[in-house]
Recover the amino acids of this structure.
């Protein structure tokens, strides 16, 4: 492995280790009750070092979902089957997330995942920062859809649908409903929601046509 690759691995491990320690402390004592200095001490690093990795206290928590900011954009640009339109690809991706119990879909009842959700949605500062994350997700998706006002409007609708579906799944899990009871209705809701998106945004739902075959030969001239 190259020296650059090794540095990147060490950097990722540092992010993960410090974030895990911070989240554990925040879950145990509350976000506002734990200082950044205490997190640094628990991670055995200096406070300035911590801030080099996490510019704000909220980033210690939301680092865990930072990779999802460009998730929809990646689906549109790199994870589509040949000829597949953006919305069917995004529908397929979200349904796969439900099947895998991906926490980002809200359909996950693991105690640590539930504790993390409670921490995020129970802390106003984290909720505010979460919406900044959603704005960046909209921006990257809009760019993947071609940019411009129409793409921004479409991206806003898509990101909102994903958020609302996940929040509803999480609300039901948090209220005590069993995951297996929620799952079929979560799948049906996702199918319905993406169907509405496809009806509202037909240009993102139609399969990509075949490549132009070039000019039609003039048979009569042969």
């Amino acid at each position: 492995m190259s020296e650059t690759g090794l540095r990147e691995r060490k950097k990722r491990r540092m992010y993960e280790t410090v974030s895990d320690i911070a989240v554990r402390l925040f879950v145990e004592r509350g976000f506002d009750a734990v200082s950044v200095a205490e997190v640094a001490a628990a991670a055995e690093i200096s406070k300035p070092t911590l801030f080099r990795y996490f510019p704000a206290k909220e980033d210690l928590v939301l680092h865990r979902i930072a990779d999802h900011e460009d998730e929809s954009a990646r689906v549109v640009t790199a994870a589509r089957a040949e000829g597949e339109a953006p919305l069917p690809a995004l529908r397929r991706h979200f349904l796969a997330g439900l099947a895998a119990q991906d926490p980002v879909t809200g359909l996950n009842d693991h105690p640590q995942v539930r504790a993390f959700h409670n921490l995020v949605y129970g802390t106003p500062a984290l909720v505010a920062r979460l919406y900044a994350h959603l704005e960046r997700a909209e921006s990257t998706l809009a760019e993947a859809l071609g940019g411009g006002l129409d793409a921004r409007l479409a991206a806003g609708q898509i990101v909102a649908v994903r958020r609302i579906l996940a929040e509803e799944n999480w609300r039901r899990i948090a209220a005590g409903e069993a995951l297996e009871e929620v799952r079929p209705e979560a799948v049906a809701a996702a199918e319905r929601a993406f169907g509405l998106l496809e009806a509202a945004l037909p240009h993102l739902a139609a399969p990509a046509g075949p490549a132009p075959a070039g000019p039609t030969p003039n048979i009569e001239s042969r």
Notes: The chain has ten helices and no strands. Confidence is low (pLDDT under 50) at residues 209-222. Residues 143 and 151 are 7 Å apart (CA to CA).
